[in-house]
Amino acid sequence: MRYIGKKFVTMLITILLVSFFVFVAFAVIPGDPALSKLGTEATYEKLEALREEMGLNEPLLKRYGTWIVGFFTGDMGTSYSYDMPVKDMILDKLPITITLTVMSFLMIVAVSIPLGIYTAKHQGKAADKTIFVLNQIVMAIPPFFSGILITLLFGLVFKLFTPGGFVSYTKSIPDFLAYMVFPCIAVALPKIAMTVKLLRTSLVDESKKDYVRTAYSKGNDKNGVFFGHMLKNAMIPVITFLGMILADIAAGSIIIEQVFNIPGLGRILLTSISNRDYPVVQAIIVWLGIFVIVINFCVDLLYKVVDPRMR
Amino acid sequence: MLLEVKDLNIEFHDHLTPETVVYDFNLSLKEGEIVGIVGESGSGKTMSALAIAGLLNRKDMKKSGEILFDGKDLLTCKRSELRSYQGNDISMIFQEPMTSLNPVKKIGAQVEESLKIHTNLTKEERYQKAISILNDVEIKDPESVYHKYPHQLSGGMRQRVMIASAMILEPKILIADEPTTALDVTIQAQIIKLLKKLNKQKKTSILFISHDLSLVRTLCHRAIVMKQGYILEEGNIEEIFEHPKEAYTKQLIEAIPALEL
Amino acid sequence: MTIKKKPNYNFIIGSILTGLIVALALVSLVYTPYDPDAMDAANKFAGISLKHPMGCDNFGRDIFSRVMEGTKNTLFVALGTVAIGTVFGILLGAFTGYFGGILDEILMRINDAIFAFPSILLALVIVSLLGSGKYNVMIALGIAFIPSFARIVRAEFLKNRELDYVKSARLMGAGSLRIMFVHILPNTFSVLASSVMIGFNNAVLAEAGMSFLGIGVQPPDASLGRMLSEAQTYLFSTPSYAFFPGLVIILMVLGFSLLSEGISQKSV
């Protein structure tokens, strides 16, 4: 319990730190938001009035305080370009990006763990060698290119989905999910290859350990040793990796949304970057950051479940 | 005769030229007997022991000869048949109690694993047996140790747990590969005493592999001296110690430090 | 006794692939079959032919020439990224690893926080602050790469500072800086070499991704990522437009990753 408490406090501190860094970066570097909002209409009086109104004349720490309190109570600021609350811009896009992330992640886990076990069990055989070579190649295909290939093959040639024909979850959840399958495959492919490779290496390393010999000496068969003994040990490094992957695909979804024309968080983030719409960029980045930090926290907890030495 | 090994040869093929590590190994083991295999590292003693335990199954090696247990040749019988003996009739404990236990499984689960594999006992029955064998290996407070993980125990305790998990089905043969090498001298003596006790109580034959002649002398009835894959000499323990035939054996005996157990 | 030794296929294939790609980029400095930016309405979407081995794009530009040019740009950004990442990573890792203490504790906490952040996200933040373009992407990715290098170097320095050769150098009166950069640093090269290759691998992927999003290399400069995003519109009619830039990215990434594995295999 003390361990969890300690990790939880560390997580909160990290969230505050990260949000503070992001806030400072966006408050200091881009110049005067009041000026950029007024543009050519700026006069000295107008500028001062707007600065006062936007709270820009307050000290930095106080501004951060106001902002972070607002952030967690639902007031994430106002978009410069659209003059609407950032919250309203993000909120209905969130389910799209979350679906993309979670669905790809489930695909990765569902495919790579059985495949990793399979290759480790058939170490050195033809199937293992074939999968090894395939893995190396698939790992090198960036998701946006596999996305393009999937669009060409499954969208245009086999017509299994309509490229660009995104259906929002508000209209039809089945159609929405059906459209998301192929983007998720594109995201998942290289990560599957990496996870298979890691799990295989990890299992092969475990197979050389003394406790495996002990397990065989008790009359276990290969399956008994693999599933009863090695798998849990071999999963320890894989869990860390899967945590990193989850964070990575959340960030990588920005690109894949572009390939498949999905109006998710990534889309707004990109438009906001090119419009220099900092409140929006800032909010999305902090949200993604919090997501990453929370995942790391969960990985730490999971660790404790799997590895008793961590207790 | 409980176990008879005839002309066992073990050859490795993982190098450019095949390398023989055990030449014409012969051994017979009676019920209740403790036989020591002595030799320095590389003498082939561990390889022979692993072969008898059925744990040398690498593809890049060749084994020939016979290992007869219960009239069955363990070298040629089916894998499933071999497994039915392992942990049931023939058990093994190893040099490193630190790494020979699975770090992520509870002691209880590891001790009763053989029961799970070879018997149909219920969970409650398995628990009772595990507690009783933990008592037999003189672990204090077995109920709490049952729920612990290996890293929470000392080296000596872990070796006791290893012995408990090997002895839970009261096997006919216990193969002990340098079981005390990684432990303190005082703990060593306790483990040897324990092995002696188990041998008397449960009539288990023990194959005791060691480089330490003084331990072999206190524990074993007979001994085999090995060097570079060959058996140099064998005989009753007193005979070997009082009248060693080979110069090498004499050297080994002379090298024993004055400490007596 | 000689142990059966398998040839280091990873290293061999990796070197060949990387060599070919680098050669392609170097040649593009002095020669491309056509001017990569020259538009030719008559050759709009021209198919694969002897004159245009990869065909032409929507402006009639020679795709092969643009791929050469794009490879050069991608490699250039990757080189800059890895250079920033390694130089600052080495400095940071060396000082924190060698001296330890409070500073190490603080810097490594920050380092961990940044490390946990996906590098593409970090690069996006920096690009949104600095603006897009080749050099800004280089800086952004470079900063994003510092923590991973710093980690590796720090671990090596931590390990090495306790070793006898360092102790004896200290006894002989060598100063800290001298010990760090003359004695310890060369001993970290074998580990570093492999991670530099992984760095290239990640940099190529990240640069291509950012150019694909339109915030990397800016037109009219050719870039493999941007070519891919432009090719998407004509995917069905001219698949070769997307295929070749994508293939080159794959070969580049494959080359670096195999090379990295080959190097770590060699040093074992």
Architecture overview:
By secondary structure, chain A is mainly α. Chain A has helices spanning 2-28, 33-38, 44-54, 60-72, 86-91, 94-121, 126-140, 143-157, 173-207, 210-217, 222-259, 265-275, 278-306. Chain A is 78% helix and 0% strand. Chain A starts with a helix and ends in a 5-residue tail after the last helix. Chain B has helices at residues 45-52, 79-85, 97-100, 107-111, 113-118, 123-136, 142-145, 155-167, 185-202, 213-219, 237-242, 247-254; strands spanning 3-12, 19-29, 34-38, 61-69, 72-73, 90-93, 173-177, 205-210, 222-227, 230-236. In chain B, helix 6 crosses helix 8. Chain C has helices at residues 9-30, 63-99, 101-116, 119-130, 134-160, 164-171, 176-212, 224-231, 239-267. The mean pLDDT of chain C is 83. Chains in contact: A-B, A-C, B-C.
State the gist of this model.
Helix content of chain A is 78%, strand content 0%.
CATH superfamily of the domain at 88-266 and 291-310 in chain A: MetI-like
Average of pLDDT of chain A: 86
* Count of runs of 4 or more consecutive helical residues of chain A: 13
CATH architectural category of the domain at 88-266 and 291-310 in chain A: Orthogonal Bundle
Record field, number of beta strands of chain A: 0
CA-CA gap between termini of chain A: 10 Å
Return the CATH topology of the domain at 88-266 and 291-310 in chain A: MetI-like fold
**How large, in whole angstroms, is the Cα Rg of chain A?**
24 Å
How helical, in percent, are the residues of chain B?
A: 25-40%
User: What string gives the helices and strands of chain B in order?
Assistant: EEEHEEHEHHHHHHEHEHEEHH
Name the assembly state.
Answer: heterotrimer
Instruction: State the secondary-structure class of chain B.
Output: alpha/beta
The share of residues in helices of chain A is: over 70%
Note the overall shape of chain B.
globular
Please indicate the percent range of residues of chain B in DSSP E strands (runs of 2 or more): 15-25%
The biggest beta sheet of chain B, please? 6 strands, mixed
Question: Whole-number radius of gyration of chain B?
Answer: 18 Å
Helix and strand composition category of chain A: mainly alpha
Beta strand count of chain B: 10
Q: Main β-sheet of chain A, in a few words? A: none
